[in-house]
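Re: [ENG-882] Designed sequences occasionally contain unexpected residues at chain ends

Forwarding the minimal case from QA. Structure tokens:
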């Protein structure tokens, strides 16, 4: 039997950089705008092949080197060295003192103001004189948004067709920008090599001159997070780029210079009204906490702590929804139900299907229902889910229903009703974002009642 495989790159989930953790850290920007949405984006990266002159990095300061080489050439006094180098005598004296302490110089017996090389100093001077630059070709990466060399692992970079399949938003670059020798200095290349190298041999090399730069034609992209902030009017929009879990001010400035939200056609709209519960549950509903905890599910291997009697009913922020969906796909033990009007391939990826099959292989019953008026679902997504349903006919039901506004997730004893589109929240070509809000209910009896009611509705729709 063929099983679903995990893609080379999987979108970040609760196990790494979850959106709700980013939201906890950055609820507002520096100007007090509120965080409205977090997008998965792609930073354009160019691969470079740089032809450069490199030499072994010398172990002593440059002035100290000149002092040793002058001593070897029989220039042995401070005034003599100072005259040759055109430097003040105190600077030369300090370099001489350093090499005296290193054991490379000693005072001449009869001339206290003159120095000579020791045997160790003779060897050091010969070694320094033998260092000659060599031509080498160095691979590196160039950040086309920030216009600078960018240390990263090539295995983390994606091709354009991959970011399109995943629904990542491609960040802009300066129009007509051509990368040339002027964009890559020896100092910048040395910093880049120091950032990426774990090889001590490479760290001993120093770039002294750049001769030629070849830009690879195939563009690559690094997955990043894009934070979208807006004021109370929802019209003043600010964007921030998160790389390695930190906001990058340099990328933020570069993105603003290129037009920011307007250039990316990002818009903010008022949120849809959240679905209301019955009066009793609404009275129990607590506002979301400032730092919502990572969702938990029952685990047969871990003893569950005692909880207070009665249902937990609380507000759910937009940023917590993807984390709960991923938790349901990876940890649900007894049941899983998803109702979403629309499907998108950017959400129902190979990674999504692999996690879903993981639940089925553990004999967890799964119900997925979708459909809104005559809006078509992507045929390839429908085909992949139908294929999975045929392979697990007693566990998975995949049903198109005639018209649903419901957006519901149930897994184990958690029920979430919301205005968040569970299976189409990523990849919206309109790029219109809302501060969606939902409600989480955690209670075995209440959730079981809702689960059985919804499963029956799905079953009735499938027969009609």
């Amino acid at each position: 039997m063929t099983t679903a495989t995990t893609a080379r790159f999987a979108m970040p989930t609760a196990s790494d950089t979850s959106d709700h953790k980013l939201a906890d850290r950055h609820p507002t920007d520096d100007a007090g705008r509120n965080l409205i949405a977090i997008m998965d984006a792609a930073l354009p990266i160019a691969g470079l092949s740089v032809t450069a002159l490199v030499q072994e990095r010398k172990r002593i300061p440059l002035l100290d080197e000149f002092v040793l080489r002058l001593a070897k050439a029989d220039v042995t006094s401070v005034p003599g060295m100072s005259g040759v180098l055109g430097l003040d005598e105190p600077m030369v004296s300090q370099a001489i003192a350093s090499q005296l302490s290193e054991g490379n110089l000693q005072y001449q017996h009869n001339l206290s103001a003159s120095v000579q090389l020791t045997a160790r100093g003779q060897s050091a001077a010969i070694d320094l004189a033998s260092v000659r630059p060599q031509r080498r070709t160095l691979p590196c990466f160039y950040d086309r948004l920030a216009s600078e060399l960018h240390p990263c692992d090539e295995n983390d970079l994606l091709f354009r067709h991959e970011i399109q399949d995943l629904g990542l938003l491609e960040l802009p670059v300066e129009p007509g920008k051509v990368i040339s020798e002027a964009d890559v200095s020896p100092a910048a290349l040395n910093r880049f090599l120091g950032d990426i190298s774990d090889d001590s041999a490479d760290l001993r090399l120093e770039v002294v001159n750049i001769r030629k730069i070849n830009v690879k034609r195939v563009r690559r992209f690094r997955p990043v997070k894009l934070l979208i902030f807006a004021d109370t009017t929802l019209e003043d929009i600010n964007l921030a780029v998160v790389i390695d879990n930190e906001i990058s001010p340099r990328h933020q400035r570069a993105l603003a210079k290129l037009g920011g939200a307007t250039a990316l056609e990002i818009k903010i709209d008022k949120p849809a009204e959240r679905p209301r519960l019955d009066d009793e549950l609404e009275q129990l509903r607590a506002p979301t906490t400032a730092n919502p905890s990572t969702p938990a599910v029952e685990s047969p291997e871990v003893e569950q702590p005692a909880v207070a009697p009665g249902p937990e009913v609380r507000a759910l922020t937009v940023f917590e929804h993807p984390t709960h969906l991923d938790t349901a796909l990876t940890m649900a033990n007894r049941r899983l139900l998803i109702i979403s009007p629309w499907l998108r391939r950017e959400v129902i990826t190979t990674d999504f299907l692999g996690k879903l099959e993981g639940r089925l292989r553990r004999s967890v019953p799964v119900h997925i229902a979708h459909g809104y008026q005559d809006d078509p679902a992507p045929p390839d997504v429908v085909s992949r889910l139908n294929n999975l349903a045929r392979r697990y006919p007693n566990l998975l039901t995949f049903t198109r229903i005639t018209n649903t506004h419901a957006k519901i997730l149930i897994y184990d004893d958690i029920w979430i009703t919301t205005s968040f589109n569970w299976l189409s929240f990523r990849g919206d070509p309109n790029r219109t974002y809302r501060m969606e809000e939902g409600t989480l209910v955690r209670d075995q009896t209440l959730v079981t009642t809702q689960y059985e009611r919804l499963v029956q509705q799905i079953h009735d729709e499938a027969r009609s």
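QA comment: On inspection the terminal residues look reasonable. Residues 1-17, 290-305 have pLDDT under 50 and may be disordered. Proposing we downgrade this to a documentation issue.
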